């Protein structure tokens, strides 16, 4: 279903979000106070608007309250980001997602009712550290400081062994959510399913347990 989004602030993050939504076929309104940014945005947004996100009257005039989902991607100017978020929540925009610059910014955004807060540089840094420290990790999602979901590739250590033999949950405390084998994804792994070198496991668990599993079982 086609959805309507507004992105305020077209820095690197705002632009990426905007381009992807537009390519996915959604209607996107791109807002920035910089004229050049707005000119460029006409190639990757449905509508563009030169406006200051802290200007309450301007936000009201463009009918921002009618948008179900607004992304505030002004990060460097923390004061502007906070003020813009405050206006949007005052106008009862249902979903206001905001990029935060640091933990203080995050705390204030939380207090004023931001519905979701992002730290893209921090999250990407964590992901890259995971890839750098393990050749077996293909993808990685941080769930919290302690838990994550990883996509790992198996080695010959597991060749021909069934899940029951490997006894992963009891030995390592982590759970296999799905197995990708020969291009097919099995989301209901059976205890008798056998693993082979090169299979991809999607697993959930504590970071410590997942790391131990990768080091000892793969
Ligand atoms: P990134 O780190 O993702 O590149 P930046 O914080 O550097 O993000 O980018 C901020 C963008 O937001 C810039 O394009 C800037 O012109 C725009 N911006 C900054 N303040 C405002 C504001 N008050 N209203 C609208 N756009 C703004």
TrEMBL record:
- Superkingdom field: Bacteria
Q: Which Pfam families match?
A: TrkA_C, TrkA_N
- The signal peptide annotation in the UniProt record is none
- Show the coiled coil region(s): none
Q: Mind listing the GO molecular function terms for this protein?
A: monoatomic cation transmembrane transporter activity
One biological-process term from Gene Ontology? potassium ion transport
Task: Give the InterPro entries listed for this entry.
Answer: NAD(P)-bd_dom_sf, RCK_C, RCK_C_sf, RCK_N, Trk_Ktr_HKT_K-transport
**Which residue numbers delimit the RCK N-terminal domain?**
2-118
Q: Where is the RCK C-terminal domain?
A: 135-218
Q: Which PANTHER family does the annotation name?
A: KTR SYSTEM POTASSIUM UPTAKE PROTEIN C, POTASSIUM CHANNEL PROTEIN 2-RELATED-RELATED
- Official protein name in the record: Trk system potassium uptake protein TrkA
Supply the source organism for this entry. Answer: Salipaludibacillus aurantiacus
